[in-house]
Amino acid sequence: MRTNENCRKLLVIGVVVVLLSALSATWSFAQSSANVVDKLAEALDAYSDLDFDKGIAIANDLLNRNDLTNKDSIAIYEALSIITYAKGEQYRRQAFNYLNRMSGIGPCLITLPREIWPSELRDQWYKITKAKDILVCPEDTEKEIKTIAIMQFDNFSVGKYQEQLGFLSKGLADFFEHDFAKISSLKVVERDKIDFILKELELQNSGKVDEATAARVGKILGAQLMVFGSITQLDSRQARMIVRVVNVETSEIIASVDKEGKPDYGKMEKELVGEIADQLKIILPEKTKNLLQEGGTGSMDAATLYSKGLDYMDKYDYKKAYEFFKLAYEADNNFVEAKRKMDIYRPLVG
User: SS3 for 82?
Assistant: First the structure.
């Protein structure tokens, strides 16, 4: 019994750490805001402990204060939306209303949405901001920062590998997104925002977005660079990964890397990120190089399970998504991305 309780406490701590690490990053830590952080910590602790009504009560109480900054209000409504959404389908509209309030305060005051948001809330946010023509916030004033979008990979494998690696196409794009986000001179477009635009343009069903359409999609996303990749596996010993980077403005391929060898896709991905940075003439500090070696997984089973979790997550099937993220983490206990997704989606499965 004590073992189960300890496991539950660890999961609770994991969720709170994930949520607060994202939320607290938006505050300037004036005295009033610091108090807001403390109270939101209580609300999120209740949320991760599945006591949603308590979390909502704490957050609602914060709204009665008269010393809130706009960022404080956004963070409170953000917490209310997440917690309310977790109560079930009949509360979705109320959760969406909180997103509308946030957009009315200022959708570009802080970077939204965040990884901690359930995927349906993220998609709803894109709908709200696109309707207001603020899907993309004003460009970063630091001109050296480039915005990059990573498309889902193509799978050109044959035979049984076509089916076995089908889900990995989505997972690889996610791995590249995580690693490119570690490079300070790059701003990465969220994977689900790309999917949202593809649906809007009715391109997703085709499964193909080539260089010819890169300019159209990239400009909508506010991206200067777009990444296209493919994997090919013919047998158990040999695999190939090709990645191209396209300049959105000119549709020119400005970087192209190719890796062949045994089908260790996690290792290939790490190596290709470094090679792409080199071709783009991005100087990586030693700290960034070390960061790029962290995360990911060398386990093919873990990578495939994680990719299946992403697919269920995109379909709003959070129970299945959680189960696959959990299986991925069990297959590789060093797979931090799988653990993070577990912590985020656990409250949504009860």
Answer: helix
Rounded to two decimals, the pTM is: 0.88
> Is residue 320 in some structural domain?
no
- Beta-strand pair 239-247/146-150: unpaired
For residue 174, which of 194, 160, 202, 147 has the smallest C-alpha distance?
Answer: 194
- For residue 249, the domain's CATH number is 3.40.50.10070
Tell me the average pLDDT of the chain: 87
Tell whether the model's pLDDT for residue 266 goes beyond 90: yes
* 82 located within any domain: yes
Side-chain-side CA neighbours of residue 238 (13 Å)? 3
Q: Are residues 288 and 234 in the same domain?
A: yes
Q: Tell me the C-alpha distance between 329 and 295, whole Å.
A: 12
Same domain? 227 vs 125: no
For residue range 276-308, list pLDDT tens digits in order: 999 999 999 999 999 999 999 999 999 999 999
Residues 172 and 281 both lie in one domain? yes
The residues pairing with 154 across neighbouring beta strands, listed in sequence order, are 230
pLDDT digit string, tens, across residues 47-66: 988 999 999 999 999 999 98
For residue 107, cis peptide bond before it (omega within 30 degrees of 0):
no
Q: 179-192: b or e for each residue (b if 16 or more CB lie within 10 Å)?
A: bbebbeebbbbbbb
Give the separation between CA 161 and CA 233, rounded to whole angstroms.
6
Question: Residue 117's CB: how many other CB atoms inside 10 A?
Answer: 21
Residues 79 and 164 in one domain: no
**pLDDT score at 212:** 67
* Rounded Cα distance, 278 and 272, in Å: 10
Which residues, 6+ apart, have CB-to-CB distance to 321 below 8 Å? 309, 310, 312, 313, 341, 345
Q: Between helices 168-180 and 191-200, what is the axis angle to 10°? A: 120
How far is CA 246 from its chain centroid?
A: 22
Cα–Cα distance, 95 to 118 (Å, whole number): 11
- With both helix axes pointing from N to C terminus, report the angle between 119-131 and 70-85 in degrees, rounded to the nearest 10: 130
Is 111 part of any domain?
Answer: yes
